[in-house]
């Protein structure tokens, strides 16, 4: 029996983000409040009788085996496992991955019956948690390719809260303690003697699960990559990354009966001189230990890049979070208006 405070907190968190559409089955879950939500968890999801529901979060998720399919999920953290209650449309989205789910296709005649897929990752199988840049997402890694999931929270607060709850639950696990670490100085702890390169900051939990956070070099690598994309037009020392945020690009669907729009996940990066949109691989990097070859695509793929000096105006919607922004740029074909303005320009 969870405390009243915990039940109230879980009820408050049980809200689907307004900009994302989900199936009827998940809408039903989002409609549950208080003790009904806890009873639903124990009656339909929990695998062990004595496990406790500790945290609930709505988030987009990506699976390692289906890296191109982002699906909405209700993420439930208990004292035994992490449950991902998935939108049923995901199962049909990628037909050749149906063996991943081992699901028998059964069309129920009763239209009031709605089925959801539930992916379970037991806490005992958890090996590491990689936190993304600026806490915009995190990746949970188990012992095989089937057990790698990225939660795209797009919200540092939700990421931080989930990580804190996960650490608290992992502290309850009874695992054999690791051998006592030998005292090391800072440089031998975090630096590699061969390359002199700083490793990512790792926190090894008492349950032996690694929590890996990005270091400053990832920002440096990203700045170098953007300078490369700009074909050397950008001066690298002056390239400061001011903002990194996971967003959606709105594409209006023309010819539809309603004024509908599709949301394309993008990584928006603002520097002191440019605005970039990237298609980012949130699931494949850093490479898992069992990966035998690098991923088929780069971590960052440039989708669009514009100079701030070409920005004409920014239109802001008046709706509440999430905020819609429209960037209007001058349609200038040439990179620099002044570059061809020589005496020869006025000749024959």
From TrEMBL:
PLEKHM2 PH domain segment(s): 114-178
A single cellular component GO annotation: endosome membrane
Subcellular location: Cytoplasm
Transmembrane segments: none
Any single biological process term in GO: lysosome localization
Keywords assigned: Cytoplasm
Stored InterPro entries: PH_domain-containing_M2, PH_NISCH_C, PH_PLEKHM2
Signal peptide residue numbers: none
GO MF: kinesin binding
Domain Nischarin C-terminal PH: 241-347
Annotated protein name in UniProt: NISCH protein
Source organism of this protein record: Scytalopus superciliaris
Lineage summary: Eukaryota, Metazoa, Chordata, Craniata, Vertebrata
